[in-house]
Amino acid sequence: MPSTLPDEPDTLAPGQALDGAVEHETKLFDRRRTTPSAARSFVAETLTQWGRTERLDDIRLCTSELATNAVMHGAPPGSQVLVRVELHATVLRIEVHDGGNARPEKREARETTADGRGLLLVSAIADHWGVEERPGPGKCVWASFHHGVVPAC
């Protein structure tokens, strides 16, 4: 886990650039209240198939928070949310893409509100997180987690 809570999303230093993905899976979800739960299940099933269940609870929580933000604040009504899981040699990356242009911001949640803590949780649990523009409308919000080296086939 990171030792500090950054005010802004992380950017990986050039030396930390991700190598080519060893495995990847992508799934589209309709913008619905059930999308965060379905995204969590998709990611958990994918990681279980790959035999990569270390930090699964952390990854499921971050997936849920990113998907919730996409549904509540990012994806326009009637659109879809794309979830991508990438397994690299030493990093697992979860991406959530939506068609909204508003950039998510980590903020301090008030004690009296039940929401507003999603990116605080992501920044506390994931090793890195960030937001990337993509061609056309929308953005990709991602979280990455360090893991042991993927065994060679």
What would you note in describing this structure?
- The protein is α+β, with helices and mostly antiparallel strands.
- The chain has three helices and five strands.
- It has a five-stranded antiparallel β-sheet with strand order 1-2-3-5-4, with helices on one face.
- Helix 1 (35-50) runs antiparallel to helix 2 and helix 2 packs antiparallel against helix 3 (118-125).
Question: What keywords describe this structure?
Answer:
five-stranded antiparallel β-sheet; globular; about 150 residues; alpha+beta
Quick recap:
The chain has helices at residues 35-50, 56-74, 118-125; strands spanning 23-30, 80-87, 91-98, 128-133, 139-146.
Topology (elements, then pairings):
Elements: E1 23-30, H1 35-50, H2 56-74, E2 80-87, E3 91-98, H3 118-125, E4 128-133, E5 139-146
Antiparallel strand pairs: 1-2, 2-3, 3-5, 4-5
Helix pairs in contact: 1-2, 2-3
Low-confidence stretches: 1-17
Distance between the termini: 29 Å
Give average pLDDT, whole number.
Answer: 83
Number of strands: 5
What is the general shape? globular
Q: Trace the largest sheet across and list its strands.
A: 1-2-3-5-4
Give a short account of the largest sheet.
5 strands, antiparallel
* Radius of gyration using CA atoms only: 15 Å
Q: What proportion of the residues is helical, as a percent range?
A: 25-40%
Question: Which structural class do you get from the secondary structure elements?
Answer: alpha+beta
Number of helices: 3
Instruction: Give the H and E element order.
Output: EHHEEHEE
Question: How much beta, percentage-wise?
Answer: 15-25%
